[in-house]
Amino acid sequence: MATHLLGDTTVLTGRTMRHITRSPDTIVTTVITPIAIMLMFVYVFGGAIDTGSVSYVNYMLPGILLITIASGVSYTAFRLFGDIQSGIFERFQSMPIARPGMLWAHVLTSLAANVISLVVVVGVALLMGFRSSAGVPAWLAVAGILLLFTLALTWLAVIPGLTAKSVDGASAFAYPLIFLPFVSSAFAPTDTMPGPVRAFAEHQPVTSIVDTIRDLLAQRPVGTAIWIALAWCAGILVLAYLFAGISYRRRIS
């Protein structure tokens, strides 16, 4: 059974990956918004925000990476919704294909596409002056957190991809996710925010994830923030996976 699932998932992932290679504008569109935000904040607002001895591009890059992921996973919902509307899911169900493989193909494609987008954004940040003395273990830890966050949001994207009534509804779920880093420690220290806003910013998932990545890249002790960040990512992933499974079974029943 496991071999059957792995083989089917590999074939179906190849199919969805070909959609990416035939539409490279998907990657371009995904990275345009984060790069535009990074350019605006660094060169327009950066001088007005006190981040101490840390350059502003170094300070804000972790938040930009999370926005890149949020922007990228919206295409997962879009592609999944397109498959359902085209009737391809019904055709696959009539074939001896492992059912979970259809969803995992979209999830793995999202991971691959987001990795490419993140590399492009980091490359632009380097041109803008981003520098890090972090070693290989710290960079691997950052990559692991980003991949876990991508996996969690991708399974979250599967739910509207399966349940939305329109293509706009399928991808609109990503807008709140893109906005969330703006009410966190991603762009400004939380102690500069009004009381209620500060309370929300300090207790939402993005702040702990951003703070952990920022400390890792700056070679500072991460403390308990890393465990909070991992708990948020794992919690979102488990809940999203469960609800996506329920939505999928209802869709194919």
From TrEMBL:
GO biological process: response to antibiotic
Transmembrane region(s): 27-49, 61-82, 103-130, 136-158, 170-188, 224-244
Topological relation to the membrane, as annotated: Multi-pass membrane protein
Protein localization: Cell membrane; Membrane
The keyword Hydrolase appears for this protein: no
GO molecular function, one term: ABC-type transporter activity
Domain of life: Bacteria
Domain ABC transmembrane type-2: 25-251
Family per similarity comment: Belongs to the ABC-2 integral membrane protein family.
Protein name, as recorded: Transport permease protein
